[in-house]
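Postdoc handover notes: sequence design on the structure in folder B. Input tokens:
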């Protein structure tokens, strides 16, 4: 596994309980028959990092197609997701878009990963590849458009005070 590490990287699993983490990972597995459970865990970890970084650095973030799979699973656990966002200090909204692989923007994914590192997490780069990379196959088909201006309500991740 290729990972960017920091000496004191935060553990994303501390953001929710172990039972909650298992439930979200099970949702990823249910949506992706045949997936290795270790891959589902990694995807959920990256989704938690993404949400935490989106709170610290609102607007203009986008998940990879693979990380989006974990974010979708996390959002489906509404009580867990709402409490996570409340504990972090902002609600990170997901504004869906129709699947369109032509929207891939490697620079936006790199910027998002930089923000995750700035938030104190290590990044599992193998889960941040472009939409045509199938090394970790997932059901998610979307990679969202980034937004960095006043129209961030159009962004896939907008953060608002709880």
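Designed sequence:
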């Amino acid at each position: 596994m290729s990972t960017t590490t920091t000496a004191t990287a935060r553990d994303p699993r501390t953001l929710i309980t172990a039972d909650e983490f298992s439930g979200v990972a099970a949702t990823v597995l249910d949506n992706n028959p045949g997936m290795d459970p270790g891959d589902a865990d990694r995807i959920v970890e990256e989704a938690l990092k993404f949400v935490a970084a989106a709170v610290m650095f609102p607007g203009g973030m986008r998940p990879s197609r693979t990380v989006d799979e974990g974010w979708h699973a996390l959002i489906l656990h509404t009580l867990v997701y709402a409490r996570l966002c409340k504990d972090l200090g902002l609600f990170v909204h997901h504004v869906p878009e129709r699947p369109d692989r032509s929207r891939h923007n490697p620079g936006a994914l790199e910027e998002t990963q930089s923000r995750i590192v700035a938030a104190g997490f290590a990044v599992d780069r193998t889960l941040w590849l472009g939409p045509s990379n199938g090394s970790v196959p997932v059901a998610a088909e979307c990679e969202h458009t980034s937004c960095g201006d006043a129209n961030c309500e159009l962004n896939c991740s907008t953060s608002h005070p709880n």
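Context for whoever picks this up: The longest helix spans residues 37-56. Don't rerun without checking with the PI first.
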